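Project standup — Tuesday

K.O.: blocked on the structure for the chain from last sprint. Re-posting the sequence here as requested.
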Amino acid sequence: MTKYYDILKAPIITEQTTKLIEGFNKYTFKVAKTANKVEIKKAIEEIFSVDVISVNTINMKPKKKRVGKYEGYTQAYKKAVVQLAEGQKIDAFTI
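H.V.: unblocked you, prediction finished:
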C-alpha cells in the first residue's frame, strides 16, 4: 500500500475513544484490512505530522443485528489504536 489515504479509512469517535484521547493520548481509526502496523504508523505520521509511539490493531468481527423482521450483520473492519508522543495531538478529532 503506497497511498497513505488508502490505509486510513475514517476516525472512530465515540465516548470511549474520547476518554482514550483525553487520558492516554490515544487515537482510534478504521484502517484497511491489509494494512500492517508499520504502514499505519507511517501513514499517520505523514498525514498528521506527529510522532507515533505505538500502534495496536484489532480485527472487529461483524455483529448480528435486526431491524423489525429483517436480520443482517454489521460490516467487519480493522481498527487501529495509535498512541502519540506526549504533547502532540491531532486537531481533526476536536469537535
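K.O.: great, moving the ticket to review. The chain is about 25% helix and 35% strand. Helices lie at 4-7, 15-24, 37-48.
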